[in-house]
Structures are given as C-alpha cells and as structure tokens.
C-alpha cells in the first residue's frame, strides 16, 4: 500500500511524499528510521464512492469549533498549561468526532509536539489560518492572546454565516416551491397543451415553444439527466477540493463583485491582525509578513505577501510594496506609510484590523437587507414569464372562436 506523509527533519525542514509499506505502522517505522518526525500519515489509495459522499457531510461543524476555541481561550487565560487545558476540553467536548481529535492533539502535545504541529495532523478540521495563527503565537509566546483572537474571529465568521443563512431561508423556500411548480407545469402541463394549440393553428410565442420543447426532452430523458447531474455535482465538489480547484475559487473570490465585497475586508482583517500580533511579539517585519502569508487562505494573497516580504527584506518600504499591488486597498498603503513615518506600525495594523472588521459587518448587513427583495423580484419575473407562456396562447385560442 502507498501512504502519503508529511514530516519534519531534525533541522525542522518540512517534507512531504509517499512511502510504500504493508500497513500504516510499518510506514511509520520506515519514516522514523530515516529520522523524520511524522506530522501526518494516511493512505493514498483511492477513496471509495460511499466514503467520498460521507466526507461531504457530518464531521465537526463550525459551531463546535467556535465553542472549542472559546473554551480553550478561557482556560489558557486562567493560566492552565496547554496540556491540562486540552485534557479538560476533551472531557467537555460534546461532538464525538471533535472529542477524539482533541484527545489525539492532547496526546501529541504531551509526547513533545508543538501545538501547531499537532493541529497540522487534522487540517480537515483546523483551517490553515487557525494553524498559522497558533504557529505565530508559539513564536511570540502569546498563545492565549492568539486563541482568544481566533475565538472572536470564528464567532464573528459563524455570526456572518448565520445571518446570511437566516436571510436566505425564506427566499430559498419560495424558490424551491417555484422550481417544483415550474417543473410540474413544464413536464406535465405544457406537453398536454401543445396538441391543442397545434390543432387550432395558434402561433406560440418563442418562450412557450422553448418550455414545451424542454418539457418533452426532460420527460423523455430524465433518468439520464439525473445521473449526469449527480456526476457533475460530485466532480465539481472533488475539483474544488483539489489544489487547482482551490486556486480557481480563490480567483473567483477576488474578482466576483458580491463575493469580493465580503471577502476583501475579511481577508484584510485577518492579515492586519496577524501582522499586528507578530510585530508586538518582536518578530521582524519581513518574517511577520511571511508567517502571515500562511494565515491568509488565498493562493494569490499568499504569493503576493511572500513577494512583499522579499521586497521589505531588500530594503523597500512596506507602503510602496502595498501600493504596487492591485490586491490591496489604497487605505492599507496609506496607513502603512503613516506607521512607517511614526514608528507605530503595530498600532496602525491594529486600527486597520478593527476598521475592516467593522467594514465586514456593514457589508454583510447591507447584503442581507438586499437579498430578500432582489430574490422576490427575480421570482416575480420568472412566475410572470411562466404564466405568460400559458395565458397568451390560451388568449389567442379563445379569440379564434
């Protein structure tokens, strides 16, 4: 069997690859024999169809992670050691999947792994941003502060998602009912009316012809269409979980107008807060930017921040590097210039983080207020078109008598 692994050398260098072994224990022994410190080890054999479907549902929910982060921040601020804190949280965690993960993380930390290394084994639960913030805090020695920020951030993220879901619930129910009614009419009603109109030589509008043709096609080929739809959905989900798919989605988030309005201030809030924490902990600016690049969950921003870190290391001003990038708002460059002039970059980044955090809330509130009326208008137009496709030919039919 082949096993995919991530490991660190004695010098701390990260390595990744595949190893062949009879079982997982043998694979672990082979890697340990090469003086590698294993971070993750899993089978690279193809996952079964049922397992793929199961991986898309269940597991650790965002709410569970929010509760865990808040509890961890609380116990760390109470001066408990990390090991004791994790053991305490393991007993308090209600979600069984998260309970097992916390237990494994606790065991890894007790055996000598750093907290971030232990979390890296569970990247399907803990995001790159979460792990990077913990790693940054380990450098600066401010783990309780970082976990507290993560708890606040995850709570805000959960609140944003909750508000959007709440605003979308009623419109989605109406859209769902409309789709069901429209499907019944297109598949069952329109094909039965078509012969009546044809015998009466009624000239059908083009949109009525399209709906009748669509109904005939769907009623004849619906099993094949259903299979194709399922395959396309599964392939799309699998693609967007791959490295290439994630890069494409990152590009969409930075270009699509509505998503960009939410994603940009959210990313700026993450970035500026992380840099502020690192500078406050005494980390040099270039190194802080490199560490922060891993906490930004976007391939474009990650590469840009690495380039900016190189520019700063070569003597360029941070504000000039920001100004040269179209992915950063002008405000970031302007405020960075003020911070460089006054020697208060840490305070400037903290203010930027607070500003973009408020900006995120404002954008979400505005979008939530607009979603329902916009969807209602769209649904009204679609309902009007659907009934016009029936009523106009019927009017022509009655007028011919």
Approximate strand percentage: 5-15%
How would you state the average pLDDT, rounded?
79
Helical coverage, percent range: over 70%
Strand order of the largest sheet: 2-1-3
The parts where pLDDT drops under 50 for at least 5 residues are 46-58
Cα-atom Rg, whole angstroms?
Answer: 28 Å
- Strand pairing plus helix content: what structural class? mainly alpha
| Shape by Cα distribution | globular
Number of strands: 3
Instruction: Note the gap between the termini.
Output: 78 Å
- Count of runs of 4 or more consecutive helical residues: 16
The secondary-structure element order is EEHEHHHHHHHHHHHHHHH
Please summarize the sheet with the most strands: 3 strands, antiparallel
Keywords for this structure?
401 residues, mainly alpha, 3 strands, globular
Structure report:
The protein has 16 helices and three strands. It has a three-stranded antiparallel β-sheet. Helix 3 packs across helix 4, helix 4 runs antiparallel to helix 5 and helix 9 packs across helix 10. It starts with a strand and ends with a helix. About 3% of the residues have low confidence.
Give the SSE map.
Layout: E1 2-8, E2 14-20, H1 24-33, E3 37-43, H2 49-55, H3 62-77, H4 82-92, H5 96-110, H6 115-120, H7 128-140, H8 143-199, H9 206-241, H10 243-255, H11 257-280, H12 285-295, H13 299-313, H14 318-323, H15 330-342, H16 345-399
Antiparallel strand pairs: 1-2, 1-3
Helix pairs in contact: 3-4, 3-8, 4-5, 7-8, 7-11, 7-12, 8-9, 8-16, 9-10, 10-11, 11-12, 11-16, 12-13, 15-16
């Amino acid at each position: 069997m082949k096993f995919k692994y991530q490991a660190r050398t004695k010098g701390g260098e990260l390595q990744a690859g595949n190893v062949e072994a009879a079982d997982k224990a043998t694979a672990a022994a082979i890697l340990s024999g090469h003086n590698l410190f294993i971070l993750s080890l899993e089978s690279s054999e193809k996952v079964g169809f049922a397992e793929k479907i199961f991986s898309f549902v269940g597991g650790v929910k965002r709410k569970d992670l929010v509760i865990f982060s808040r509890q961890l921040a609380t116990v760390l601020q109470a001066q408990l050691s990390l090991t004791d804190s994790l053991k305490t949280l393991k007993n308090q965690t209600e979600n069984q999947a998260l309970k097992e993960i916390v237990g494994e993380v606790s065991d890894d930390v007790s055996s000598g792994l750093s907290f971030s290394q232990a979390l890296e084994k569970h990247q399907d639960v803990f995001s790159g941003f979460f792990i990077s913030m913990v790693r940054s805090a380990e450098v600066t020695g401010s783990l309780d502060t970082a976990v507290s920020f993560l708890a606040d951030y995850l709570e805000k993220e959960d609140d944003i998602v909750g508000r959007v879901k709440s605003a979308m619930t009623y419109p989605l129910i109406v859209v769902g009912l409309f789709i069901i009614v429209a499907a019944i009419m297109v598949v069952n009603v329109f094909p039965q009316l078509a012969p009546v109109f044809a015998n009466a030589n009624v000239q059908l509008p083009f949109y009525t012809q399209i709906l009748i043709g669509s109904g005939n096609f769907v009623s004849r080929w619906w099993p094949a269409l259903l299979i194709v739809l399922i395959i396309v959905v599964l392939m799309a989900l699998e693609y967007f979980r791959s490295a290439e798919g994630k890069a494409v989605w990152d590009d969409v988030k930075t270009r699509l107008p509505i998503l960009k309005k939410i994603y940009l201030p959210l990313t700026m809030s993450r970035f500026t807060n992380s840099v502020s924490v690192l500078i406050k902990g005494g980390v040099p600016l270039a190194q802080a930017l490199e560490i922060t690049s891993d906490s930004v969950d976007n391939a474009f921003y990650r590469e840009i921040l690495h380039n900016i870190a190189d520019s700063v290391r070569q003597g360029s001003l941070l504000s000039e590097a920001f100004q040269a990038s179209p992915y950063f708002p002008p405000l970031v460059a302007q405020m960075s210039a003020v911070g460089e002039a006054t020697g208060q970059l840490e305070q400037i980044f903290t203010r930027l983080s607070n500003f973009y955090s408020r900006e995120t809330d404002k954008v979400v509130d505005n979008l939530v207020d607009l979603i329902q009326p916009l969807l209602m208008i769209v649904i009204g137009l679609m309902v009007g078109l659907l009934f016009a496709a029936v009523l106009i030919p019927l009017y022509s039919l009655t007028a011919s008598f």
